[in-house]
Design brief:
CATH topology of the largest domain: Quinone Oxidoreductase, Chain A, domain 1
Shape: globular
Order of helices and strands: EEEHEEEHEEHEHHEHEHEHEHEHHEHEHE
Distance between the termini: 13 Å
Oligomer: single chain
CATH class of the largest domain: Alpha Beta
Bound molecules: nicotinamide-adenine-dinucleotide, zinc ion
C-alpha cells in the first residue's frame, strides 16, 4: 500500500509499505476513505518531538472495515466506521472510567499512559495516512457510521478535533449563557468555538493572528480577536466591561508565539489566567510536552514552563488538561451531525489524494492563507 512516512524535520514522503494484517484476534483492518492532517502532526513534522524516522503518520482516520479477527463480533466487514485517535483496551481502570486517552495497557512507552496511531511517544502503532490501517481492540474502539458516503467531511472530524474541541469546553466547565474565550483559531480552536456555541454560550471570543482563520471563526458566530492588533486580554476586557470571560479554552499548545513569531510556551496560559474571571475554568487541549529540546529556554526544554500559577491560585481557577478521550463524546457528536445541529466540515479547505500529502504538510505548517484543514482521500 501507499503510506505517508516521516523522514526527518520538514520531510515526509509517500512510500510503499506492506498492507497491514490482522495480528490479534481482536484486530480489524480498515480501508481508509478519509484521513486528515492535524496540528498535532506539525509538532512532529517540525522535528519538535522524538518521533522515529520511518513512522507512518495519521491519527484522524475513517473508512470501511476490510477484515476482522476471530474475536471481533460487533464490527463486521463492510461497516463504515470512525476510528478514535486513542487506542484503548476497554478494560483497564482508566478505560473503565471513560478515560480512554489514558489507557494503561496499550502504550508500552515508560511513563506514558494512552496510545494513538502514528504519533510520537504514543506507542508503536502505524498511522492512517495510508490506504489501510490496523485497529487494535476493534469492537471497543470503532464507532459505527451510517453506510454510504453522506456527511463524510463532517464524520471525519469525529476521530479527533470535534471531540477535542468539545472536550476543551467540558474541561473548562462551560455552562449555557457563559462567555467563553478560545485561544487558537486552528482546527481545534474552531471546533471548540463551534462546540461552545452548540452548548449555548452567550459569546465566544476566538483569538489568533491569522486573518483567514479569524474570518472562519466569525462566520460560525464567534467574535474574532487578532492578537497582532494588541494585547488579546485587554481587547476581551474592553469588550466585556472589564469582566472578562467565564471560562476559557487553550487550543494552541507549547509552540504558542507572539505576533513576531517568537515562541513563548507560557504566553497563552498567562493570557487565560488573566482573562478568565475568578473561579472560572480553563480547558487545556493544546499539547504540552515533558521534554522539548527545541524550546527557547533551558527550563522549557525540560518541560518546566513558567506561567503565573500564583495568580491562577489567587483567582481560585480550575484547569483541566490532556488528550481527549474521544469515545466520551463521539457517538453524541455523530448524532448531532446527522440531526443537522453540528456541521464541523465548515473548516475543510482542501481535499487531496495521498500523493499530494507532502506539499499539503508544507502549506499547512506555514499556516498559508486558506490552508485551514486538509483531508486526504487515499483511495483517490
Ligand atoms: N488534547 C488533544 O486531544 C488534542 C487533539 C488534537 C490536537 N491537539 C493540539 O491542539 C493544538 C491545536 O491544534 P490545531 O490542529 O488547531 O493546530 P494549529 O497549529 O493549526 O492551530 C494553532 C493556532 O494557534 C495560533 N496561535 C499561535 N500562538 C497563539 C497565541 N499566542 N494566541 C492565540 N493563538 C495563537 C496559530 O496561529 C494557529 O492558528 C495543537 O497543540 C495540537 O497538538 C490536542
Ligand atoms: Zn489530530
Ligand atoms: Zn485501557
Amino acid at each position: 500500500m501507499k503510506a505517508l512516512v516521516y523522514r526527518g524535520p520538514h520531510e515526509v514522503t509517500v512510500e510503499d509499505r506492506p498492507d497491514p494484517t490482522v495480528q490479534a484476534p481482536t484486530d480489524a483492518v480498515i480501508r481508509i476513505t478519509t484521513t486528515n492532517i492535524c496540528g498535532s502532526d506539525l509538532h512532529m513534522y517540525e522535528g519538535r518531538t522524538s518521533v522515529e524516522e520511518g513512522k507512518i503518520l495519521g491519527h484522524e482516520n475513517m473508512g470501511v472495515v476490510e477484515a476482522v479477527g476471530d474475536a471481533v463480533t460487533r464490527i463486521r466487514v463492510g461497516d463504515r466506521v470512525s476510528v478514535p485517535f486513542n487506542i484503548a483496551c476497554g478494560t483497564c481502570r482508566n478505560c473503565a472510567h471513560g478515560w480512554t486517552s489514558f489507557c494503561l495497557r496499550t502504550n508500552p512507552t515508560e511513563g506514558m499512559d494512552g496510545a494513538a496511531y502514528g504519533y510520537a511517544n504514543m506507542g508503536p502503532y502505524d498511522g492512517g495516512q495510508a490506504e489501510y490501517l490496523r485497529v487494535p481492540y476493534a469492537d471497543f474502539n470503532l464507532l459505527h457510521l451510517p453506510p454510504g458516503t453522506e456527511h463524510e467531511n463532517d464524520f471525519t472530524m469525529l476521530s479527533d478535533i470535534f471531540p477535542t474541541g468539545w472536550h476543551g469546553t467540558e474541561l473548562a466547565g462551560q455552562a449555557p449563557g457563559d462567555t467563553v474565550a478560545v485561544f487558537g483559531a486552528g482546527p481545534v480552536g474552531l471546533m471548540a468555538a463551534h462546540s461552545a456555541l452548540i452548548k449555548g454560550a452567550d459569546r465566544v471570543f476566538v483569538v489568533d493572528k491569522e486573518p483567514d482563520r479569524l474570518a472562519m471563526a466569525e462566520k460560525i458566530g464567534g467574535l474574532p480577536i487578532n492578537f497582532a492588533d494588541g494585547d488579546p486580554v485587554q481587547q476581551i476586557m474592553d469588550a466585556t466591561d472589564g469582566v472578562g470571560a467565564d471560562c476559557g479554552v487553550e487550543a494552541v499548545g507549547f509552540q504558542a508565539h507572539d505576533p513576531s513569531g517568537d515562541e513563548h510556551p507560557e504566553l497563552v496560559l498567562d493570557n487565560l489566567v488573566d482573562v478568565v474571571r475568578s473561579t472560572g475554568g480553563i480547558g487545556v487541549v493544546g499539547v504540552y510536552v515533558p521534554q522539548d529540546p527545541g524550546a527557547p529556554d533551558k527550563k522549557a526544554q525540560q518541560g518546566r514552563i513558567g506561567w503565573q500559577y500564583g495568580t491562577f491560585f489567587s483567582k481560585g481557577q480550575r484547569m483541566g488538561t490532556g488528550q481527549c478521550p474521544v469515545m466520551r463524546y463521539n457517538r453524541q457528536l455523530r448524532d448531532l451531525i446527522i440531526a443537522g445541529r453540528a456541521r464541523p466540515s465548515f473548516l475543510v479547505s482542501h481535499e487531496l489524494p495521498l500523493a499530494q500529502a507532502p506539499e499539503a504538510y508544507g502549506h499547512f505548517d506555514r499556516r498559508d492563507q486558506g490552508w485551514t484543514k486538509v483531508l486526504l482521500h487515499p483511495g483517490g
